[in-house]
Amino acid sequence: MTAQWVNPGQRWRLLAPADAAVVDVPSRPFAVRRTAARVRAMPGNSAVILLDHRPASLRTRRIANASALRVDREYVALPSLRAAVVVVEDSGGSLTWTCRSLIAPPPGLTWAHGFVHAAVALLRRYPGLASRLAAGRIVIGRTA
Questions:
Q1: How far apart are the first and last CA of the chain?
Q2: What count of other Cβ atoms lies within 10 Å of the Cβ of residue 38?
Q3: Nearest residue to 120 via CA among 134, 130, 110
Q4: pLDDT digits (tens, 9 = 90+) for 43-91
Q5: What is the distance between the alpha carbons of residues 38 and 66, in angstroms, rounded to a whole number?
Q6: Could you say which DSSP state residue 80 is in?
Q7: Cα–Cα distance between 138 and 136 in angstroms, integer?
Q8: 25 vs 38: CA distance, rounded Å
């Protein structure tokens, strides 16, 4: 039997409790309200993982606040949750180290190399942008 985290879109499972309820945040209107209600309906002290695939989205924070979820950890998946190369904790020191040490333009680019190089240079200078612009956010917490 193969572990679930072996699949590229499931590697975030290494960071989460095995018994946690996984909640994918849909991209529909009123998704925050409906997802917060779903999390509030869970039994007390249940482990919950919120997954947000949308770029530049902070909906998981709004859901955690609206549902009284106690956030243990928050991660950012770079470049996206479905194709994560790096999953880093959403904190200043972790993002700074990741952007300055691990983020680099992919090899073999031709016409887009200048644009990608400029984007990487911008992330190295302002690592907080990685948190704001990433297309993947993982929040791990417990219900109240």
A1: 35
A2: 14
A3: 130
A4: 999 999 999 988 888 888 889 999 989 999 999 988 888 888 888 999 9
A5: 11
A6: B
A7: 7
A8: 11
